[in-house]
Amino acid sequence: MDETFEGRFAQAQLLWGNIVARPLRAFLSIVAITIQVFLVLMIVGLTSGVVSEWGKRVEGVGADILVQPPNSSMFLAFSRAVLPESLADKVSKLPGVDEVAPTLTMTDPKNLSIIYGIDYQRFNGLSRGFLFRAGHPFEKADDAIADDIVAQSKHLKVGDEVTLLNHPFTICGIVAHGKGARYFVPLKTAQDLTGADNRVSMLYVRSKGDTEATREQILQIAPGNGVKSVAEYTSLMNSSNLPELKPFIRTMVGIGMVISFLVVLLNMHTLVMERTREIGILKALGSSRLDIVKLLLGETLVLAMLGGAAGIGVTFLVEAILRETTPTLQILITPGWVGGAVLLALLGAAAGAVYPALRAASYDPVVALAYE
User: Fold this and answer.
1) Is residue 70 helix, strand or coil?
2) CA 264, CA 15: separation in Å to the nearest integer?
């Protein structure tokens, strides 16, 4: 028992001594793995955060049914403005409908902010209404309402002028966030700017209680359109449920693994060449091939764990900085992906170390001792 413990302690000392003896090489391996973990967590965190936050903002509008044109994007900001505005009046007359808000969704190309063109009274009537932090509703065609997050990030106040869709607007009010868009402008102004006369991108509908029955009523007068309950829509707003995001996430994860694989492979290959005589001495002293492989893989896994911990630390540090400097940017890092990123780092590093370790284990001790 004591001999076994002493043997393991000696192996641990040898392993750690080999790492400390080559600090620059160890540092480069740790940096490569740190980059991989940071890359995976930030890419997944950004996509998950944006998708999750968008679902919450749609839910916060106060509607329980969405009406969109056929084959519309899951991201409502990219819906085409092809629905006739008159459809809102038809839907409002259905027995199960309480309120309808025709909405024109737009994205400003300069700052990628989501903008809603709305009929203020109808949109405001979907829920308890806008909660104004400052200012008032639209009074002129060129008035705009901003939510408090974008107002904070851009240091906006009531009376300031902003350029949206290459058109000057005056901020007339600042409201609590969570109503779908970052900016709101009068529907008629939005239609004039986008050339969408009497057309809208979608209808937000609030039923009188029976969502499914109301959805069926809407489908009868608007067949072929996409009619979803908000509950169904928000359940789909998950990065794993959006086919457009899956290839992107897989590609970025793959790039991260390739980075760590190549760096570890290069470092371990060079390390084995440098330690050929040392490996020969270990084999001459009775170390088996398995002992050599375990020693080299152990070094790699220690470096991978250090790099994984550093990557997690850097990720949360950057997230905290972005939360203060760019509050409109939402990042969602889940424990599952933290563990997954570390596991991917370990797999990539181990894969890069396997060939050099097996090559070292196959050295003939006599040849290795004669190596210069």
Assistant:
1) coil
2) 16
